[in-house]
Design goal:
Layout lengths: L4 E6 L18 E6 L20 H14 L3 E8 L2 E9 L15 E2 L4 H14 L9 H4 L8 H6 L2 H5 L11 H5 L4 H4 L25 H10 L3 H13 L5 E2 L1 H5 L8 E4 L2 E4 L10 H4 L1 E3 L1 H11 L9 H7 L4 E2 L12 E6 L4 E5 L2 E10 L2 E8 L4 E7 L6 H12 L2
Helix pairs in contact: 2-8, 2-13
């Protein structure tokens, strides 16, 4: 295992944007990952976005957050070798004075699936598993859906939401507080709507079979694997998988929902932490910027190019109906392996969003421009539906 330490360099003045709850301007650090020998492990041969001006986007976002009164927000823009913009708004929790900063922990909800996709791709890359090995041969204790579905379902099907099972199977049980371990007993009862590989059906519970595969393959928990293979080597010091990583943090953002016209604190639903691959990651905006850089190819010793390419290749076209399908310049949409993939204004875009009680998150990459953005909200707000297309319209005029 290669362990890395993080160093920082200052942004060029021309790219400076401000970080502060009160809007105070300051220079921003760039996360740099180096080996113990000092060798930089990022690929700097990609061009920075020329003449980037994010001020109109930042002004729009600032106005929307103010108008909607979202309790707390953190946003960052990066390319593969530096931070281009970083700003936070508001407080960690209503009724308290502590402000959101770049280290404040958020639940990133279904953006957790991007980590699970990387985990599965790494298992395949390391020849620990195969994309097309039937799940039943890895996890013989499970019967999932019909007998034929159980026999044919593979790791690729799980990671691309092409299991053929009824969409969102048993997510309602998670909403009601039932944990993954209890839901497993009902796997056999999930209706099958098409043969595996033939149709798209988004999952949270079944997607989390990735954790079982890790335990069988690596003889360690999913949480340990992610920590050892992703968080630690990337220097993601605040990131964690699971409830304890959230409740045990000091600088943590709490969940909020809008009740009528008033924002209210709401309790955490721990059941979604039991499906760690689907929704169990906690992270700050600083760590999510590092994750965005990693998925732009900045850290090839952690995420090799072939791992990224496999994840970011379309597997199945996604039907219309989700919020991103209503983005005006979106041409086509697919799901890959832990990532959504779009053609937006003729440019390939990699994306995932997330929502869990009291939190929303959005992460988008434009690999051809070597640029990415992440926005984290500690409130369930429809603004999350709009932050990505507005950003894309800024960088893709």
């Amino acid at each position: 295992m290669l362990f890395l330490s993080r160093f920082h360099a200052l942004l060029p003045t021309a790219l400076l944007l401000f970080l502060a709850p009160g809007g105070q301007a300051q220079t921003l650090p760039t996360p740099i990952v180096t080996a113990g020998s000092g060798q930089i492990l990022r690929s700097d041969n990609k061009p920075a976005l020329p003449g980037a001006d994010f001020s109109p986007y930042m002004e729009w976002l600032d106005a929307e957050i103010t108008t909607l009164g979202v309790p707390g927000v953190a946003m960052g823009v990066v390319n593969s070798h530096q931070v281009l913009a970083l700003k936070t708004w508001g407080v960690r929790s209503l009724g308290e004075d502590a402000a959101v900063d770049s280290h404040t922990l958020f639940r990133i909800a279904s953006v957790s699936k991007t980590f699970a996709g990387a985990v599965a791709a790494m298992l395949v890359h390391d020849q620990r598993q195969s994309w097309d090995t039937p799940i039943i041969s890895i996890l013989p204790q499970y019967a999932i859906g019909t007998e034929s579905a159980t026999r044919e379902m593979t790791l690729r099907h799980v990671l691309s939401h092409t299991t053929g099972l009824m969409p969102h199977a048993y997510s309602n049980m998670l909403d009601s507080g039932v944990a993954y371990e209890k839901i497993q007993e009902k796997f056999r009862e999930i209706p099958t709507v098409c043969p595996p590989g033939r149709c798209y059906g988004y999952q949270n519970v079944v997607f989390s079979l990735v954790s079982d595969v890790v335990e069988v393959s690596e003889h360690e928990s999913y949480e340990q694997y992610v920590q050892e293979r992703l968080f630690t080597p990337l220097g993601m010091t605040t990131a964690s998988v699971g409830l304890e990583g959230y409740t045990g943090a000091d600088n943590v953002s709490t969940a909020h929902q809008l009740r009528g016209e008033t924002w209210r604190n709401v309790p955490t639903n721990p059941a979604y932490y039991s499906v760690g691959p689907a929704a169990g990651v906690n992270a700050s905006v600083e760590d999510m910027m590092v994750w965005a850089q990693a998925n732009l190819g900045a850290f090839p010793l952690v995420l090799p190019p072939e791992v990224l390419a496999e994840q970011q290749t379309p597997v199945v076209e996604t039907p219309r109906g989700s919020y991103f399908n209503r983005w005006p310049r979106l041409d086509k949409a697919w799901y890959g392996l832990g990532w959504r993939i779009f053609d937006y204004a003729g440019v390939r875009v990699i994306h995932h969003g997330g929502g869990v009680r009291g939190f929303r998150s959005e992460l988008v990459l434009v690999p051809s421009l070597d640029i990415a953005m992440v926005v984290l909200f500690n409130g369930e707000t429809p603004l999350a539906n709009d932050v990505v297309p507005h950003f894309l319209d800024t960088v893709l005029p």
